[in-house]
Structures are given as C-alpha cells and as structure tokens.
Design a protein that fits this description.
Blueprint lengths: L1 H19 L4 H11 L9 H26 L5 H22 L4 H21 L16 H18 L4 H12 L3 H25 L5 H22 L4 H20 L3
Helix pairs in contact: 1-2, 1-3, 1-9, 2-3, 2-10, 3-8, 3-9, 4-6, 4-8, 5-10, 6-7, 6-8, 7-8
C-alpha cells in the first residue's frame, strides 16, 4: 500500500511540476506528511517531509525541463542571476530550519503556501509581451528573487517556483511560459542545494523519495507537454486553490 500511494503521489506531483513549472512540493510535503510521516521520528516529521520532497523535486524538474528546453522557453540570461542567489538562499533556509522547532516549521509552511496561493489567484495573466532573450532587466531584483525563492525552497520544501513565477511576472514582466520554463531550471538547482543540506542533517527518507521520484519523472513529462498546449489562466487559478488547500491540510494535521 505504501508503494502504491507513493507512486500516485509522485505521479500527481510530477504532473503539477510539468504543468505549472512548480516543483510540486506544495503538494508533496502535505502528502508525505499525511501518508508516510508516522514512520519518521516524531520530533522531525515535518522536516523529513520537506527534505524528502526536495529530493523528489530534483527528478521531476529535470523531466519537465527537457520539454521546455525543446520548446525554447528557457532564458539563460535570467538563470545566470537567479541560480547562484537561489543556491545561497536555500543554504540559509536549510540552516535556519535545523534550528527551529518542527511545529514552527509546519506553521511557517502553512502561512507561506496559503499566502502564495492567494497571491497567484489574484495575479493578472500576461498575454501581450514578446520575450526571448531579455538582457536589460534589473539584476538586483533578479538576485533578490533568486535568493528569496531559494530560501523559501529550503524552508518549506517547495521548489521555489510559487515565488519565482509570480515575481518574475510582476517585477520583471516575464511572460508566463518563459517564467515557467526558466523557473524549472532554478528549481532544479535550489532543490539540489536544499537536498544536500537536508541529507547532511539526516532529514531525507531515501526509500520514500525514490518511490515518489520514479512516478514524478513520468508525471512531469505528461504535465509539461499538456501545459504548453492549454490556456494558463484557468490552470493558474485552479492551482492557487490547491496551494491554499494544501497549506490548511498540514495545519489541521496533528
């Protein structure tokens, strides 16, 4: 039963990763916490759920990146700024979480994920910007976006795209498809950095992580191909609701 649930969760989280360009951690963390955390040490259930989620996101993001790279929806100029700052942010977040009580981490997750869900729901959709190789953008804002996304990634076990995508759209005026494709690469590096930090602290469950990863690779391929073909406004609204529900589901879990 554990393997079956793991495959279902991984498949769905991978699908969301490819569909929305988000790591799927906002879904995976609550799922791991609900279905698998009883086998984790009680005092670190939330932290292991987050660390395991980051591990899985590495594989789902790689799978989705392949599709977006083929569609030329990834911008290298932005990546050169947000990846280094994102790695730094994820290390700071992982260090901080190791010092916090598990209950505090859980509450932080609830507040951030539900707030981002509300923000995504109200963010207007872009539809009239032509963007391929942007060079003249505010690099300081790009660095700040990368750092914040990496910090949140490590602190909450999400890939960081729930921040990267709306921030790129709002402050750098990046169209949604490019923001998704570019954020996926940033997610990959944030997740690798965060996973290493959690693994060193023995906060990654490899058994659960591998099961979830196998299914997430398949789900991400399906989701990314599907996502490039459908209208983003409705999908974004739907996923913002899922984010809010995911956050509150952890809040009401004992």
């Amino acid at each position: 039963m554990e393997i079956f649930i793991g495959l279902l969760v991984g498949l769905f989280a991978g699908f969301i990763c490819g569909l929305f360009g988000m790591g799927g951690g906002s879904l995976m963390v609550p799922a791991i916490y609900h279905f698998f955390s009883d086998s984790f040490p009680f005092e670190s259930r939330m932290k292991i759920s987050i660390g395991t989620s980051l591990f899985v996101i590495i594989f789902s993001s790689i799978s989705a990146i392949i599709t977006y790279f083929k569609s030329k929806k990834i911008n290298k100029n932005l990546l050169s700024v947000i990846i280094p700052s994102g790695i730094l942010g994820s290390q700071v977040g992982a260090f901080l979480i190791s010092k916090l009580d598990d209950r505090i981490v859980r509450n932080i997750f609830v507040v951030i994920v539900t707030s981002l869900g509300l923000k995504m729901f109200t963010t207007p959709e872009d539809g009239n910007k032509n963007f391929e190789n942007i060079e003249n953008y505010n690099k300081f804002i790009g660095i700040l976006i990368g750092f914040i996304s990496g910090f949140v990634s490590a602190l909450c076990g999400v890939g960081g795209a729930v921040l990267i995508i709306p921030l790129l759209y709002i402050f750098l005026k990046i169209p949604i498809h490019y923001a998704i494709g570019t954020s996926l690469v940033s997610i990959l590096f944030n997740s690798i950095s965060g996973t290493i930090a959690y693994f060193i602290r023995n906060l990654v469950n490899l058994k659960i992580g591998i099961i979830l990863s196998i299914a997430s690779i398949i789900g991400a391929q399906i989701g990314s191909k599907f996502g490039l073909k459908i209208e983003k406004r409705k999908l974004k609204k739907s996923f913002s609701i899922i984010l809010i529900i995911s956050g509150f589901s952890v809040f009401f879990r004992s």
